[in-house]
Specification:
Elements lengths: L4 H13 L1 H30 L10 E8 L4 E4 L3 H10 L3 E15 L5 E8 L3 H5 L5 E2 L4 H4 L6 E4 L1 H8 L9 E4 L2 E8 L14 E4 L15 E6 L5 H18 L8 H6 L3 E6 H6 L2 H32 L2 H9 L4 H37 L14 H26 L4 H8 L7 H36 L11 E7 L8 H16 L6 E5 L9 E4 L1 E2 L12 E6 L4 H5 L3 E4 L4 H5 L4 E5 H8 L2 H4 L3 E3 L7 E7 L14 E4 L2 E5 L2 E5 L2 E7 L6 H14 L6 E5 H8 L1 H35 L1 H9 L4 H30 L15 H27 L3 H7 L1
Parallel strand pairs: 4-9, 6-8, 16-21, 18-20
Antiparallel strand pairs: 1-2, 1-10, 1-11, 3-4, 3-7, 3-10, 5-8, 6-9, 7-8, 12-24, 12-25, 13-24, 14-16, 15-19, 17-20, 18-21, 19-20, 22-23
Length: 823
């Protein structure tokens, strides 16, 4: 049957004659479909949409696994890069890249900008040509080549006003002038990283390359028709060649690298970009899908009530020759119209919800810029509208399209109460609603318990919202000698201490939870190692005197670093409690012990033990950390080692204010006016970031569970209220025969409780079978946590009692004379 214009007008008139029914139905559908559209747009943008490069299926990330060191994913080293590029049989090309941070001076105030260091093959592999100029070639990345730079579109327009004559001009980065050779187009985005301002050539000297230094990221483009498995086999073939082609670093033996048992670890580039967010998004998609099912059940209940009131009309139409198929078709058309109108409203809600989603999304959510309401999302919305229309429209159409004249007149008579059969379908729908709401409430409850458990974990620092952090880099062009670098850093620290409201200032190589630490093996002098054995990798952090006091990390044994340790380059170290316990049993036992990084380094005496810090996030175990002074000699085979890029941390109630940062800039620039401040954040930002995925999941599941609970309560209320209205004559007779108010109320409360109990029972069974997929999102909480299940059952029971009590009270107030006369 085609959709005739007259039929559409008839449907619209019928909907306008019942404005309250139409409004409630459209709001219910808009909420359900709009929520699904918003979440699907995230799923489509993050998981389903291909990367924005030509032939993205050919792009892979190249890394390794080192089971001998218990490292599941190990990045690339220059030694592997050279061999893979020269002898690989499955790659069109391979390239390395790393993030960078650079100071821009010589124009207005100094500025710290994001940079990207790449080998010459990276940009051509992505196949997005520059808007102006050229890509890097091998002369740019060769040692001793000209200092060049490529600008990204955003920085070009902001810094140079989109001047097309910028090619050939120079810009001073880290005190070094570089010639601008290209500008990337507006649509260029490098993977999922925050867009850099400048792109620099990465220079690697093959003649000086050694094994090790696995601190680079790698991308390769496969040859046409080559699979990831074939490329992995090719990399596995070349790993022994790498070991034979380059020497081990000074202080390390070749046996150490061979014991690592390096293996290929390649995956499609999209998988590398997306990470492990997929399970979370599909869980959220399923949760919001349940809300749509509950909304459909609610609308089906509304349609059943409405269609019951039209039985006389339908019976007369059937008597006049209307076939069952035609009447059912017209009823389905009405459902489709409701679904389409509801989805149109839902699109508006989805647009607003998407803006909110992007704001509250965890910082680790990839591909945020690719999330939009586009063609595939509109197609999903249309499909959801049509599917929902069939779901909530099929039951009334099948149940009443074939109503006969006699049956319709009898069932439509005002003197007859509704039959048990008429209520059965509506009761089943309510049971389904309560059961699905139970599943979502349990999921939300488990996340609430998880969030609570996470907030109870001691992160290893105190009051993070009152700690302001920022980074400074002192390039060689500004200060050459390592000792002078530390003296300037200390001078800046003392200037910051003088800022009003600042109680203490710390300096370190990395802020906890910022992800900027590094790992290396730590040898203990009083431990024996088998030939070729490598000790466990430990996290390395450089810390200035006062760092632990400022951060609120407890000193458990020994002492803190001093400035004398730095300037005299004394061989000292501090370790975390878990490293001390793992190696020597107790924190006190670690004092006086000696450790080092390589066999050519000086042994360093442990002078202090501090509390553990959850540097990888609250939900992950605290890593074992070795802390070193800012200035050291004979460290990691360097005669003198210093950190030119450091982070400052200011303990003050003014943290997070622009007034504080204005004072901080003046303090820094009073020492050196060419040092820009970067990564200005509170420690609370990094702490909240570690909880972001859990809190985002909690909010989303909480919204879904709240909608489900509300819709389930409305459905239960509607069934009891309808039952009261249909049984008014029976109620009148009961009251006339002496039934008490409590008996009448209890009769309908029992009905509501029975429906809720059956729904809760079904929901518990489903929840126990399905919530285990959430186990990776939980923290010290079982998927069948009894406290959560008990509270959800109690909450649903209380909601059912309230939803049933209100119409039950109305039943007890029925006047028997009025009820009997009305019938």
């Amino acid at each position: 049957m085609g959709l005739h214009p007259d039929l559409l007008k008839q449907v619209l008139r019928r909907l306008l004659r019942t404005p309250m029914f139409t409004l409630v139905t459209l709001i219910t559908l808009a909420a359900g479909i709009g929520a699904n559209t918003a979440v699907f747009s995230v799923v489509e943008g993050v998981l389903l949409n291909p990367l924005p490069y030509p032939h993205p299926e050919e792009l892979v990330s190249v890394a390794h696994a080192a089971p001998g060191l218990n490292i599941p994913r190990l990045s690339m080293a220059p030694s592997h890069y050279f061999i893979y590029r020269e002898q690989g049989r499955t790659f069109q090309d391979i390239g390395l890249y790393n993030g960078d941070s650079l100071s821009v001076t010589g124009v207005a105030e100094p500025e710290q900008v994001r940079g990207l260091d790449v080998t010459d093959g990276i940009l051509p592999m992505l196949e997005i040509p520059p808007l102006l100029g050229r890509w890097f070639d091998r002369s740019d990345t060769a040692p001793g080549g000209a200092d060049t730079v490529i600008l990204t579109y955003g920085y070009w327009t902001r810094k140079f006003g989109a001047d097309r004559s910028v090619i050939g001009k120079t810009i001073t980065l880290d005190g070094k002038p570089r010639q601008i050779i290209g500008v990337m187009p507006r649509n260029f985005h490098f993977l999922d990283q925050q867009d850099p301002a400048v792109i620099l050539p990465m220079r690697l000297d093959r003649a000086k390359t050694q094994l090790g230094n696995y601190s680079f990221q790698a991308i390769a483009r496969l040859k046409p028709g080559v699979t990831v498995a074939q490329a992995s086999a090719d990399v596995a073939r070349m790993i022994p060649i790498v070991m034979r082609s380059f020497p081990a670093p000074q202080g390390f033996s070749l046996d150490l690298f061979q014991k690592a048992d390096l293996r290929a670890n390649l995956q499609p580039l999209k998988s590398e970009v997306v990470g492990d967010i997929g399970k979370l998004l599909w869980i959220l998609m399923g949760s919001i899908g349940i809300v749509l099912l509950i909304a459909c059940a609610n609308v089906a209940n509304l349609l059943l009530v409405r269609t019951e009131g039209r039985q006389q009309e339908l019976a007369i139409r059937a008597a006049l020759g209307g076939t069952r198929q035609r009447i059912a078709g017209e009823m389905l058309v009405e459902s489709v119209v409701l679904g389409l109108l509801g989805s149109a409203l839902g699109l508006g809600l989805a647009y607003g919800a998407l803006r909110l989603l992007v704001v509250i999304a965890p910082s680790g959510l990839p591909r945020l810029r690719d999330i939009a309401i586009n063609g595939p999302v509109l197609g999903f919305t249309l499909a959801a509208a049509l599917l929902a229309s069939l779901l909530f429209g099929a039951l009334p159409a099948l149940k009443y399209a074939g109503t006969r004249l006699g049956t319709g007149l009898r069932e439509g008579g005002r003197t007859l109460s509704a039959s048990r059969e008429r209520h059965h379908a509506r009761q089943v729908l309510v049971i389904v609603q309560v059961g699905l709401a139970c599943v979502l409430l349990i999921s939300s409850g488990l996340m609430i318990r998880t969030f609570h458990r996470l907030t109870q974990v001691d992160p290893g620092f105190a009051a993070p919202d009152t700690v302001q952090t920022f980074r400074l880099d002192i390039p060689k062009a500004e200060v050459e000698k390592p000792e002078d670098v530390v003296r300037m850093q200390e001078a800046i620290l003392h200037k910051l201490e003088a800022i009003p409201g600042v109680s203490s200032v710390a300096m370190t190589s990395s802020v906890p939870m910022s992800g900027s630490d590094w790992f290396d093996p730590v040898w203990a002098r009083d431990r024996s190692y088998n030939p070729g054995e490598m000790p466990p990798l430990r996290r390395f952090v450089l810390a200035a005197p006062g760092f632990f006091h400022t951060m609120g990390t407890p000193l458990l044994a020994g002492r803190d670093f001093t400035w004398e340790d730095n300037y005299q380059q004394l061989p000292v170290a501090i370790v975390s409690e878990n490293l001390a316990r793992e190696t020597w049993g107790t924190p006190a036992s670690a004092l006086g012990k000696q450790i080092r990084v390589s066999t050519t380094d000086d042994w360093r005496q442990i002078v202090g033990v501090v509390g553990d810090v959850h540097s990888d996030g609250i939900e992950k175990p605290a890593p074992a950390i070795a802390y070193w002074p800012m200035l050291k000699k004979n460290f990691e085979s360097d005669p003198v080692s210093v950190a030119r890029g450091v982070a400052y941390a200011l303990r003050t109630p003014r943290a997070g204010s622009e007034a504080l940062m204005a004072d901080a800039r003046r303090a820094v620039w009073s020492v050196n006016p060419n040092l820009p401040l970067a990564e200005v954040r509170t420690l609370g930002y990094y702490y909240d970031k570690s909880l972001a995925r859990t809190s985002f999941t909690l909010v989303m599941l909480g919204i879904a569970a709240g909608m489900a609970l509300l819709l389930g309560a409305v459905g239960l209320y509607g069934v009891i209220a309808y039952s009261v209205a249909q049984r008014s004559r029976e109620i009148g007779i009961r009251v006339a025969l002496g039934a008490q108010q409590g008996e009448v109320v209890g009769m309908f409360l029992r009905q509501g409780f029975l429906l809720a109990a059956v729904g809760i029972g079904c929901g518990l069974v489903v929840a126990m079978a399905t919530v285990r997929v959430m186990s990776s999102l939980l923290f010290h909480v079982s998927p069948v946590d009894p406290v959560t299940y008990l509270l959800v059952c109690a909450g649903l029971g209380a909601t059912a009692a309230l939803a049933s009590y209100i119409p039950s009270r109305r039943a007890s107030a029925v006047d028997p004379i009025v009820a009997l006369r009305g019938e």
